[in-house]
Structure formats: structure tokens, C-alpha cells
Amino acid sequence: MKNLYALFFIAFIWSCPLSSKGQDLSFVNHTELGLLTGTDNFGPRNNFTFQTFNGVQLSSRHAVGFVTGLDQYGNYSVLPLALGYRGILNPNNKWQVFAGGELGYGSAVFEELEVNEWDQHHWRKGGRMAQGSVGFRYKTQNANFWTISVSLKRQISYFYIGNPARLSPNRNRVTDWNYYEEDKVTFNNLVYRIGYWF
Amino acid sequence: MKTNLHPRFILGAQLMLSFMLVIVLPSCEDQIETTYTYQTQVPVFIEVNSFREADIIIEPGIPLDQPGKIYIYGDYLFISEPGKGIHLLDNTDPGNPQNLNFINIPGTGDMAINESILYADNYVDLLAFDISNPENIQLVKREKDVFPNLYSNEETGTIVTYKDTLITSTESNMRWNTWGRPTFRTDMVMLETAAYAKSDGGQSYGQGGSMARFTLLGGHLYTVDEYSMRVFNVESPMDPKYLSDINLGWGIETIFPFKGNLFIGSMTGMHIYDASNPAEPREMAVYSHITSCDPVVVNDDYAFVTLRNAAICRDGANELHVLDIKDLNKPTLLKAYPMDNPHGLGLSGDYLYLAEGEQGLKSFNVSNVMEISDNQLEHLKNHVFTDIIPGPKSLIVIGPDGVCQFDYTNPEQLKELSCINVAN
What we know:
Number of helices of chain A: 1
Largest sheet of chain A: 8 strands, antiparallel, barrel
Helix content of chain B: under 10%
Order of helices and strands of chain A: HEEEEEEEEEE
CATH architecture of chain B: 7 Propeller
Radius of gyration of chain A: 20 Å
Strand content of chain A: over 45%
Oligomer: heterodimer
Largest interface: A-B, 43 and 37 residues
């Protein structure tokens, strides 16, 4: 949770004051929907992803901002919170090539503790996230853009199983558990997205 | 086909395709690294000669580390460190107990005191110490091989004990198997019962908690372990003699003496033994309940039994049962009250004190046993408590964090006198 606050703070510093400097820094939103694909122990997985980039256009080629959204991995939902960058190779064309990158944290804030009938506790924790993308954007008549992109995304998460040794066990204290299993899962994704940029 | 795509676009597309070929095509497989951590007990083998030959060392007082059980005798308070030894404190002033000595007894579990003779187990042996002068504690007797269930090989004199250990591994064969992890825990029954201090047969006994596994009655020392009760003749206090072994089934946890009878708490129920012939206690009745952890305290008419849900007493309930024991041959359940996580308990006149584990300490007026829950007096939540002795000067309460004493001259309002906290 501390990481989340820190990240929010950095993002705030990063994006907001830039737009209030009185320079010609216009607001950018790039919202995308897509398919998150990868391979886990059970074979291919294909899930839904959504992300939205909000930031400022530093120049015709560069934009920075804050990225959030929702990534679904089976029944596991991750809320990404990241700093993002967008760079455009040929900003004057109808069809443009762009690249992007995000660095941040994927939060398991939507996950709840589950306790089964044998009093075995299951919970999940988020982790670092990094993503790199390339794609095309197509300029519409009112100077907005449709985008299509491909990304590589790496998301780390921690899955836990614990059999408590005491009544109100502390999740971070191993000695409160008779058995404590930590699975560090690194999701390596190939992501296909379409989006809209204004 | 003619294309009107911009050359820069084609360049971009080529760049992107090469990028994908290099980076994307190696398939995106998830990586999983698993760490398994267990708290378990690993067996430690010990030769009996090694501890029999070693001197029992009486050390100056040391801070509490993992307090287990409490026992009072006169103005002295005894606090056991399971497996390590016994702290001896001068409790003349309950507001300021003085740490006197630490009796270093490896493999000890419980204790009882009779006529200034302290009995304690030392793995398979029973030791008797003369504590009439706390400055000069003497080992007066070693009764050998009276707890033989610790032997892994009696012929070679090898005993097995289990040491708490935290094991961390990334080997997949360490994954938890819900049905069959080799768990070695045998000691998790840490129970106490408030046994009443009472002079009996001219001997003066100390007073243990409700979770005690050693007790004294009618010139005899009774000890319970998992399966059985052992009887020792201690009419000559310095010379305890092992008499017999009575099989009690399984999951035996606590023993509580009252007026010539022994009340034995087990995971499945409460056994009542008539000890009017102390050398040969006779079973009178068994009150059965669901599997649960449960110490017992009694008065003339009623027995108070706590049932606790814990790791080893799986599926247990958290309840206080009140039994009518006017006819000791036929204990009947009067009422069950829901509780948080009751451990040990202590009875003083019409007042019942109940250690609720992490939920602290509760006090009740039990003059009307049918309405105990309506007569809760206090709920002190600031400590973790597991057992209680209502002593002559103070109510002594123990938990994993230490030992606290309360003034209970006004039973309706406990007043904290002192707390001895563990060192770490």
C-alpha cells in the first residue's frame, strides 16, 4: 500500500504541475482495450485488459503521464498504477508510428482473503509492472487518433497459502503460520490493443 | 496492388515487425518461483546418560522467554519455560515480584510442589528438588524412567524430543499436502487449570493453573500425558515412588483435583476419577463433547469446562460448558455459553475468570450458573492470556507475553498490580 501512495505522489508531481506552467502543454488521454495473452501452467491464457493514459503533450513527439486500468488474469484482477511515456515517430502523417512504455506497480487491491473449510488462508499481493509497446495511430478528421498496438507486459504478483498457527495471524510474519507458501508469479504477456487518443 | 501508404509508415511497419520477431516471438510463458515455509518440529535424539550425568544447574534469575505454566507455593511464584527450566520468583509483594533463580531442567514440561519439594519432569525422569531455602535449591531424588513414552529406544537409552524449527525450501516436494504433512507437533496442548491450593493429608501443596498436567492429591502426585495418567506416592515428599499408569484414551490435556476427586480434561471430554483411594483412582464418569481443547475447573456443584477451537483441536467450538456434578457419576450439561477463544480458567467463590487467549481476560459472576453471559463483569483486552491462578494475594494470569498479577479483592473490578514481560 505504501508503494501505491508513493506512486500516486510521484505521478502527481510528474504530470500535474507541467500543465499549469502556462506553456503550451496540452492534455493527452490515450485509452485502450485489448487482449492479454500468455502461457501459464495450464496452457494459453487470454484475458481482457483495459488501460488509460492521462498526461501532457511535452512536444509533438513526446508525452508523459500516469497510467491506470484493469488487467485480468483468469480470476485474478490487477489494477496497474504506473508512469507512462508515449513517443511519436512521424507526427505529421495520417498514419503514425508510436511507441510507449510504462513502469509501475500492479495492485491486487480487488483481491480478498479466502479461508477454506480447513482454515487454510489464500490471498494475493501485487508487484512490479513494466510494459513496452509499439503501434500505429490513425488521425481522424477532428485531429484525434485511433490506435492499434502490440505490447510486452511483465507483471509480478505474489500468491500466498497459509495455515495459521495463531488466531489472528499477521500475513507478513512467517512465524504466525504453521505452513506458509509464497508463489512469486511473473506474468509475461503479449498484449494486443485498440484505442482512442485525444 | 497499388498502395498509397506513406514510406515512413512502411519503414515503421518494418521496424515494428523486426522488433516483434526479436522480442515477441519467444513465447510469453509465466514464471513461478515458490517458497515453502513450515513451522515444524524436528526430532532430536538424546542419550539419557547425557542429561542424567549433567548437573542440574541453578542459575541466578533470568528474564522470561517463553513462559508456559505457573504455579504458586507460599510466597513463591514458579513459571515454567517448557523444555528449558523453571523460574523461581519471590512474590511476597505481588506488585513487585523478584526474580530469584532459574532452575535449568532440560526437557521439563510441568511441575508441582509438596512440602517444599518441587517435582518436575526431566525427559523420562521425575526430579524432586528441596526448595525450602530458595537460595540453596537441592536435587534430592531422581525417579528414573517414569515417563517412558519419550523413549525411541529404551534398550540403548535413546529418547526423542522435538525442536521447533522453521524450514524454508523451494523444493516442490515440500508443498503442503492437506492430508499428510509429517507434522511432529505433540506439545501444542499447552493447557492450564486453576487447581485449588488446599492442604491435604497434612501436606501443604502449591497451586497450579487450570492447564496443569501435574497435580497433588492425598499424598500422591498425578501426572497426565497424551494417553495416560501416572500415579506417584509422595507421602514421603523427598522420595516420590512411581506406582502405576492408567490409560485414559487420547488427547489428555489437563488435570484438576477437587475434594478427593480428579477432573481430567481431554480433547473429547471430561473424565472424573474418584481418588478416595489415592493409589488407585477409579473412573466414575466420562462427559463427552465434540473434539476441542478444554481445561476444567470445579466447585461443589458445578464443573466449568472450556472448549476451544485451535490448530490441533480442529472443528472445535469456542464455548464455556457448565455441568451439574452434584452426582459425580452422572455429570449433566446445564448450559453452554459462546466464548471468543477460551483457554484456561480460574474460579474464586462466585467469580469465574476466563483467559480468552488473544481476546484477553473476562470475569463473570457465576452465582447463577444459568445466566453467566448476562453477568459478565469485565473484559480486559490489552494482553494475551492463556491461564489463571486465583492465588491468595493476587489473581495471577499468564500468557505468551508474560505474567500479570491483579488485585481481585474487589472481584468486580480487577486492578493491575504488576506485569513481568518476556525479554524479547
